[in-house]
Amino acid sequence: MPTISKSINDALNAQIALELSSAHLYLSMSAYSASQNLPGAAHWLRLQWTEELAHGTKFIDYIGERGGSVTLGAIDEPVAEFDSLTDLFEQVLQHEQKVTAAINEIYGLCVSEKDYVSQALLQWYANEQVEEENSASEVLSMLRRAGDSGAGILMVDRHLAQRAGG
Ligand code: FEO
Hints:
The protein has 166 residues and is mainly α. It has a single domain (6-161), classed as Ferritin, core subunit, four-helix bundle (Ferritin, Up-down Bundle). The chain contains five helices and no strands. It has helices at residues 6-35, 39-65, 85-112, 116-146, 150-161. It starts with 5 loop residues before the first helix and ends in a 5-residue tail after the last helix. MU-OXO-diiron is lined by residues 19, 22, 52, 55, 96, 99, 132. MU-OXO-diiron (FEO) binds next to helix 1, helix 2 and helix 3.
């Protein structure tokens, strides 16, 4: 017998598809950055790709722990071309805002169904979204300050190369 409701199970399955679509988007963005000779951005986005894969698999593991069923949905085809690195990071931020809204929606569902264990999991994701939006905003503000300056963009790229972890 599953210990999560069908509605929460379905919402989590939809979220897995969104997390894996996020991974795919960042992998595409990483490849674009590499093609533009921006290795720091390519590195930063490749790490983001691995984080999104981890977000997706964390939901998969959780559904398993609660005796639910995992159904993988289709992954969205990612954008492959961007006007600039600033345009790319604007899209990163917009995408993360969309993910935050989706997480909040599921959190609300867990609250309405009084599923306290799932709420604890969603709280982890909500905190993660604060970090993700903050880091995208930080990069974006550096890029906006750099404007069209090639030297400025290279400095931001060097900064992005410092990102640690995975
Ligand atoms: Fe897993 Fe960037 O949201």
